[in-house]
Every structure is written in C-alpha cells, then in structure tokens.
Amino acid sequence: MIAKLNIEAELNGPQLRAVTAIEGPVLIIAGAGSGKTRVITYRIAHMLEKGIPQSSILALTFTNKAAREMESRVKELTGKKLQALTVSTFHAFGVKVLREEIETLGYRKNFSIYDESDQNKLVKECLRDCKISSDGVDLYNLQQLFSNIKIGRLEWGTADGSGRFADTVWRPVYDEYQNSLKIYNALDFDDLLTAPIQLFEEHPEILGKYRQKYRYIMVDEFQDTSLIQYRLMKLLANKGNEKANICVVGDDDQSIYSWRGASYENLIRFEKDFPGTLEIKLEQNYRSTTTILEAANGVISNNTNRKEKKLWSGMDGGKPIELFYPINESAEAEFIAEQIKKMRFEDRLKFDDFGVLIRTNNQIDVIEEAFLGENIPCKISGGKSFFDREEIKDILSYLRVVANPDDDVNLLRIINTPRRGIGKASISSISEIAKRNRSSLWESLGRWQLAKDHGQESLFQEHSTEAKGRGFPPEHSKGEIGGFISLIEGLRENMLGKRDLSAKVKAMVETINYWGHLITEYNKDEKKAHWKYANITYLIQMIENWENDPDNLDKSLYAYLNRISLLGRADGDGEADKGKVSLMTIHASKGLEFPVVFIAGAEDGIIPHERSIEDGPGQDSFDPIEEERRLFYVAITRARDKLYITSCQQRKRRQDVITRVPSPFLQEIPAHLIWYHEKEKEPDAQATENFFARMKEQFN
Ligand code: ATP
Ligand code: MG
C-alpha cells in the first residue's frame, strides 16, 4: 500500500507554498540543503495527485542521475507508474524533441551525437580540408571558439568581455565543420540545444505544439543554466498572454559552471522575463549539522558578489570537522581508506554513506589504488569515464555506424579496426571522392558498389577525376571494401530491431573478431588484451542490465546510443552506486549528500586551482577565486554529519615532489569548529592552534 501523499506533514511553510503555487512563475533562491530539489519533487507529486497529466510536466535537472533520482522519488511518493512524465537534462530534452522533429531541419532521425573526442577528430579533418596545418593549433581553444560562435556568445571579428577574439581566419574551418556535421547526419552537444531553438523559432507551429504540451515546467540548479538553456526554457514557458507556469530553483552561492558559460545572471533575468514572479525563500537547512553549516557560511561570506541569505540548521552542533595534514598523497589516500574502514565498523555505516571529493581528476588514481588495496568498492564519476577507453570506443563506434552509417567520424575509426587490409591510401581516395560529391563515405561506397555490380565501375571513376588518376579503390583492396560494406549491411539488418541488443552486440564482437584484434595488437602484453576484453564483457553486461530494467520502455539500439551519448561526466557510467564509496570531483557532487564527506587535497593551487589564481579577476564581474570559493562551499555542504578535510604537505608532480601549502579557504572556517587530526591520538585543540599558526605564517 502506498501512503497518500501528505505534503503538509513533510514540508515546512515556505516549501509548502512553493509546492502548491503551481500556476504562475515561481523563483526560489536558497542555500544548500534547504530543500529546493525536494520542493520540485513534491511539486510534481502534488500535480499528479491533482490530476494534471504526466505528459504536461517537464522537469529539467543538471545530470541524468539527478533526473533518475527525482523520477524514482516521485514514483515512491505517488505510487504511480511514470510513463509520460519528462524528467531530464536540457540536453536529453533537446534529443527528445529532435528525434521527433529533426527532419524539418533537413537531418534524418537516426542522427549521431558527437562527443568532445569525435568533435576533435572532425575539427582536425576540417583543418586538413582547409589546408591549414593543425600543428601549433590549440584544438581545445578552437573547439571553444566554435562553440561560442554556435551558441551566439561571440561573433566573427569581435571579442567578448574576457578578451576572447573570434578571428575570421577560422571561419572557413567552422563552415566546413558545420557542413560536415550535416553530411554525416551528426550533431554536436551545442546543437542539441541550438537545433531545438532554431526549430522553435523558425517553425511557430512546432513551438506551439510543445508549448501546448508542456504546461508545467520546472528547473533545478537554475544558477548553472547557460544562456542558451535559458533561451530554450523561456521559449517553451512563455505562452503569450497566459501566465507561465514555471518554477526555477537555485543557489547563487553554488554557481560553479561560469567557465562553461553558465550565468547566474539568469536569476536576475528571470524576474524581468516573467513579471509577477512569486519569490520564495527557504532558510532552514535539513541536511547538515550546525558545525558543518557554520563552516560553510564562514567560507562563503568572504565572497562579495552574492545575495546575502540566512541559513540555519535545526540539527545540533554535531561532530567537529577533522583536519588532517598528511605527508603526501599516498598517506592521504591511506588515511581516507582507514577512516572509512574504521567508521564502517564502529558507526555501522555502509560504503555508500561516504563521499570523497576532489578538485582535479589527477587526484583520482592514488585514492582509487588505496581503495583497491583495502577492498573498498568505489565508484568514480567526473573523471575519465569507462566510455573513454579505446576498446569501448571501438565497439561503440561500430554501434554508431550501424545506427547511422553516414557518420564518417565513427566509420573512419572502424573501417580498418580490426585490420582488414583497407589501407590509408584507399581511405584517403574514398574520402576525396566523398568530399567531391559532398556525400558521406558510406554513400560513396554504396555508389561504387552499385556501379561495380552493374559492371560500370569505370563510369563511377570517371566522375571523380582524382580517383581515376589513382584508381579507386586500389585493385588490391576492392575485396576488402566490398567485405566491409556487407559486414555493416549485415549488422544493420540484424541489430536495428527492438530486442536482444546485448546478445546482438556480443555476436557482433565475435563477428568482427575483436579478440583476435586485441591479441595481435597486444601480442607482447597478453594481460592487457585480457583486461581490455573484460571491459567489453562488462559493457555487454551493462547493456543487458539496461535491457532488463523494468522502467526501460525503448530497448532499441538508438535508445541505447542516446543514453550513452548523453551520460555526462557527473553521471559516471550510469550503473547503480549502491554499496560503493563515491569518489568524485566537486563539480560532479552538486545536489548530492553523504553522511560522511572527505575533501581531499585542500591545498593552495588545487582549491583554489592554480589556473584561477593566475587568471585573476576578469574584466566582467566574474572572479575566478570567488568561483573556487563557491566550489569549496559546495563541497562542504555535501556533508550531513561528519566532514574530513585533508591537505598534503608534499605532493608528487610528474617526476618532482613539491611542497604544498594548505588552502587559504581553510582559514575562513571558524577555528573552533576544527580539530586537527593526529594519528593514534585524541583530537587536540593545541595542535589545531599550531596548524593555523603555521598557515598564517605561510600566507604572510
Ligand atoms: P542543494 O542546494 O545542495 O541542491 P537542496 O536545497 O536541493 O540542496 P534538498 O536536497 O532538496 O536540498 O534537501 C536536503 C535534504 O534535506 C534532503 O535529504 C531532504 O530530503 C531534506 N529535507 C528538505 N526539506 C525537508 C523537510 N521539510 N523535512 C524533512 N527533510 C527535509
Ligand atoms: Mg538540490
């Protein structure tokens, strides 16, 4: 039996007001742990209870994981099956719209989604096509530039507030990039937002349909929405003369994505764009002990650029924050592992009660290793993902090509992996023909095959002068190219159904003889080959888990690829994290909470990050140090009962060992809340004093 939803008993006054104000715009700016996410969850449940159809509700979250959690909470609260409710990230929402409507923009529905590394390859290819050497070109910056152009933050020949200049020499490369995406029937991440906007702006009838459909919109973590996300949201929510039913919640103190173009000025913009907004303040924190909250407030109050808020905890003082000053990162990792083992035993905590937060990805390895050594199961998110491994990418490239053979970037990855005798020369002559015809490689291959089957191969070659000169395809690889075409066609026939995807992927891995490929590639290191193959087995297992999930209604290859493409860094590998310690970047920890939190590497140069120290305040109001302080605030406020902070005295950096200094943010935590942790000894107030005295010296 599901208990009836009792919102009065489970919400405080202001929360209740926010949950029941379902008509008209609502804005909630409130501190960490004050129940913002809870408000959105209960609002949805309340709406469903009132008989508002699931299909009219759209809730936008920051990560896929947060979306899944919210959905399962709503399910718990209402006892309803959720089949038509949309809870997703902005990007996943974009995909949902595009899978329905993209043909209007001249794409096909089986479009590929390019991640950063696909994008990187494509940019390189475009540089080559524009006869610009990629030596000395900062590809990351170039990708950023393209992104800024695409989302309208920069225009060619102009500069933005922080001095970035959009040099017109890159314009032809950008145009080539755009054209190629179109030919490959592929979209990059920005397109997932800009294409729906274009669709809505150019086709009022489509916009009208979606406005009509989503009558109730909610956005969590609103402080980190980008301008382009804001535009999309505004387009949907604004319904002409009618009042918009939109509720956004956020915390300016937790805005940590400015570097990615998020703008908490959206908070200010919102009030202007949605007149008559009901503003609600939430001031009680339900997450953390008074000690943790006081520490967090002590830190964040040093930021000048913020909305002052009151935030209090109804809980008692709780345990002191423990500070540990290990000799180096190995000692730090060992300390964390030991504490976890000890607390699990003494306080009967579970592994998933612990969160270990780091500022930078390169802190992951040492800690992961220590956990492995101590048999502590852990789940990593925010770092290098499982899906970035070479062997996994190979298999996923196959799946992408099966779904969308026009996807040149992925086709090029697999056309000769495993090696099948299609050499560089063949590939480049096919590419030339394809470029000339402004078609994808696959299409060109198909035309060649057709001509050949009709005995008109020479005719096909005549159309492509360059290829004629070279002879396409080279005589010796004709058979191999033909074989590749039939391989992909066979896989397409087999794999595009709605069932048994994991079994089909398994069969595919065998068909292409990937194991043979690994053995040849790693003939000197068989262990590595085995390890890589084990990863593929794990991938197949993951697909099977996904298939068997009762909430998963669409089990097609397309649905799987969508899901994988949209997994953000913060989502980890999308597998359940029950029974595991979470090891994650602070960025990935947004919105989460753990009974026990470790902040590792609280050192000057890590947090605040050295890059932000070098950069100094920008020309616009953005101050990188303040952003780092917000990050530190986010980290502290993830803790419910107990917070550990560690700061190493030395740290290895490439070959050298360098001396480290504690983060200046530590001084901003009121000293009486901290205990200096000395191994094997009771926490000692004198040691804390000494520690701070030493720190002061270092900073003077
Ligand atoms: P963040 O800013 O970190 O995203 P938040 O404002 O979204 O935090 P929630 O995650 O919604 O806060 O809530 C923090 C914790 O407090 C959760 O465990 C939530 O269930 C609990 N909580 C919030 N409001 C109440 C309440 N009225 N009664 C009991 N528990 C509450
Ligand atoms: Mg939240």
TrEMBL record:
PROSITE patterns: UVRD_HELICASE_ATP_BIND, UVRD_HELICASE_CTER. It catalyses: Couples ATP hydrolysis with the unwinding of duplex DNA by translocating in the 3'-5' direction; ATP + H2O = ADP + phosphate + H(+). Residues 9-289 form the UvrD-like helicase ATP-binding domain. Its EC number is 5.6.2.4. One of its GO terms (molecular function) is ATP binding. It is an enzyme of class 5 (isomerase). Signal peptide: none annotated. GO terms for biological process: recombinational repair. CDD domains: DEXQc_UvrD, SF1_C_UvrD. GO terms for cellular component: cytosol. Coiled coil: none annotated. ATP binds at A30, G31, A32, G33, S34, G35, K36, T37. The keyword Transport does not apply. Belongs to the helicase family. UvrD subfamily. This is DNA 3'-5' helicase. It comes from Leadbettera azotonutricia (strain ATCC BAA-888 / DSM 13862 / ZAS-9) (Treponema azotonutricium).
